[in-house]
Amino acid sequence: MTVPRVFGWLADRGGCGWYRIMQPLAELQQQGLARCRWDVRVTYGDMAGYDVVIGQRVSEPSPSRLWRRLAADGRHLLVYEVDDDLWRVDPGNPTYGYYTNPEVRDRITHNVAVADLVTVTTDELAERVQTINPRARVVVLPNWVDQALLSIPRPEAGEHPIVGWSGSSTHRADIGHVREPLQRALRKLDARVVSFGADYLASGIPGAQHWPWVGDFGQYYQRLAGFEVALAPLKPTVFNRSKSPLRATELHALGIPGVYSRRGPYGAVVCDGVTGLLCDRPSDWPRAVQRLVQDVELRTQLGKAARERARGWTIQQHAPQWLRAYQEAM
Q1: 306 & 320 share domain
Q2: Are 136 and 158 contained in the same domain?
Q3: Which 8-state DSSP code applies to residue 314?
Q4: 122 and 213, same structural domain?
Q5: Same domain for 176 and 40
Q6: Which of 31, 43, 113, 128 is most enclosed, with most CB atoms within 10 A?
Q7: What is the residue range of 223's domain?
Q8: pLDDT single digits (tens) 28-66
Q9: What would the mean pLDDT of 186-192 be, rounded to a whole number?
Q10: Neighbouring residues of 248: CB distance < 8 A, sequence distance ≥ 6
């Protein structure tokens, strides 16, 4: 059987590029299922000889012209990869402001239309893409984590736990949704507060720390593993409805007990009171955080149960799903 050649056209080398292209393609290659390559800046000649070309969020004018040229040639299986509802971006989200431009959305819609296959992260996003182009072939490929996360040691449970929030600038509204009651509670608790990434939490809390992003994913996981309590709020918006539960997946794999918003993707994967705590309203957050900060035994129990649940969520187990999706579309 001929091993297919797969080219991943990255939108970036950040989290989206890592989870949606680099990690799954690296694992397909590691398992001998495909020969893979990926890059951000590409030319027409880079695609020569590849059976499958994955385009991640192709949306700018010049890349869109290249995408349509590839579609017209018909030499490759063209896979459009999108992991957010780029047609319904929250207006107040500055990082995604680019996608509020009607011309950008039109290019995305057209690029989806000429693709042979569209891959997404959730059922909700698949339904959204299907309403935009009813004839599109859409497959859900969830985000999974590297099994190495399951082996990263947990810190010794202490009386002054690190309570952390981690996120990029795309999550300003999410942390803002619960910031006031959360900060009020954290000021009263005997805990070390950390904001990892964008500093949307630490400012305003005496003694809180801000950890800047690190460029290496291994370093990122090692730093994140230092959290003893993790905070994962998500504002109930139309845009967030289609997001994946990746943050919960990461925290579970690292064995970190977390406090999550129930609405949205986290409610489907977090077992309330077993692998984490779920909150319905912003006013629920102070009590939930207080429980985990003050109860060492509860933190330990939730963390162990979370990590055990995550053993079935690794890319090593699920990478063949990517290859099956491409083969079935060929």
Answers
A1: no
A2: no
A3: B
A4: no
A5: no
A6: 128
A7: 147-312
A8: 999 999 999 999 999 999 999 999 999 999 999 999 999
A9: 90
A10: 232, 258, 260, 265, 266, 269, 270, 276
Q: How many domains does the chain have?
A: 2
Place of tokens 């497959």: 139
- Secondary structure of 181-232 in HEC code, one letter for each residue: HHHHHHHHCCCEEEEEECCCCCCCCCCCEEECCCCCHHHHHHHHCCCCEEEE
Phi, psi of 96 (to 5 degrees): -100, 10
Q: What is the pLDDT of residue 129?
A: 95
pLDDT level of residue 198 (50, 70, 90 thresholds): confident
Q: Which residue has the tokens 């053993």?
A: 311
The pLDDT of 66-81, averaged and rounded, is: 96
Q: Are residues 81 and 31 in the same domain?
A: yes
pLDDT at 1 over 70: no
List the strands of the sheet with 77-81, edge to edge: 35-39, 5-9, 52-56, 77-81, 117-120, 138-140
Q: In this structure, which long-range contacts are made by residues 237-242, counting pairs with CB atoms below 8 Å and at least 24 apart in sequence?
A: 237/90, 237/173, 238/85, 238/88, 238/90, 239/84, 239/85, 239/88, 239/89, 239/90, 239/93, 240/174, 240/264, 240/265, 241/85, 241/124, 242/84, 242/85, 242/121, 242/122, 242/124, 242/125, 242/128
Concatenate the DSSP letters of all residues of 80-105 into one string. EE--S-TTS--TT-GGGGGGGSHHHH
Q: What is the pLDDT of residues 121-140, one digit of tens each?
A: 999 999 999 998 888 899 99
Output the domain CATH number for residue 278: 3.40.50.2000
Residue 60 DSSP code:
S
Q: Are residues 319 and 300 in the same domain?
A: no
The answer on 101 and 84 residing in a single domain is: yes
Q: Phi and psi for 249 in degrees, rounded to 5? A: -60, -45
Q: Are residues 320 and 177 located together in one domain of the fold?
A: no
Mean pLDDT, residues 237-242: 92
